[in-house]
Amino acid sequence: MTGNKKFILSTIIGASMAQLAWGQGTEMAAVVSKPVSRTIVLPGEIQPFLNVALRAKVSGYVDRVLVDRGSAVKEGELLIELSAPEMKAQIAEAESKVQVAEGDRLQAEAKLASLGSTLTSLEATLASTQATYDSLKVASQTAGAISGNELEIALRSVESQRAAVEAQRGNIQAQRASIEAIRSAKAAAEAALRALKEVEGYLRVTAPFTGVVTERIVHPGALVGPGSNEPLLVLQQISHLRVTVAVPEENVGGIAKGASVTFQVPAYPERNYSGTVARRAQSLDSKTRTMAVELDVMNPDQSLAPGMYATVKWPVRSAKPALYVPRTSVVTTTERTFVIRDKNGKAEWVNVTRGAADG
Length: 359
Fold this sequence. Notes:
17 strands; 6-stranded antiparallel β-barrel; 37% strand; alpha+beta
């Protein structure tokens, strides 16, 4: 068959009609060449876009559970409060250590200021003593101006005062080192307090994203901790869902990212839902010879739920084009399937093979 041939649109039944009159009123239809498009039905599973089992990061007793199964929560919302009395005692002790370290620092810095004042006084005394010695030394050049040991006494006074100044400077240096040690101790105490405060924050279990609590496992009074096998809650995002479809190997090549695909669920058989091809596994399951493909589905009315079974109408397009005629142009008898071609104004029977119907 070629695209420019004409065929009778009306159905003709039986070989006895082969001599049908070929009148001017016969309605004709054109042959169209186009790729074969059809859909296959594949099973799919609806899954939450985000799914998390919330667990306790620290050991403690469940104090309050603020949500239950089916509760809608927002990101950051408080879900569960835990109680850990020993942690409060540790925090109080750490805060006390910080306060003591701060008191030690203030005292040490006050002492340093006092040592500095004393040094200033000693340096002034040294300067005065040195000036006295210098004057006596000049006077000693004149016979009889000073007594014999007066200059020696002045020199000893200068040396003693200089030693006192040096000793005070050493005291100041030692005090500065002591202050640095106190500051380091305070910084360590503050770091320990911050760490405890951070751990204390784990006593408040909050929602990591906006969603719905689908399981509640714990109750007030329960002892929980990082080593527990059971989660506290299960939180799922259901306003945005994934539909996982196992696509057969022969149909994998036609997967187009961003394509829209329709599906139905048994709960609402009259409704058609749609999803967008978002991601594929890029690997076939060795047993089923299928590839997992995920559709992104928006679920604003929350009529869809994780775990639902979906019947997916997967579009399939043939790589080779086929010839299409209206359904009424194809005649099927007990002997053959054919169409009638207009050849130079005469009817000609042409055997054909039915393919996929388009619509």
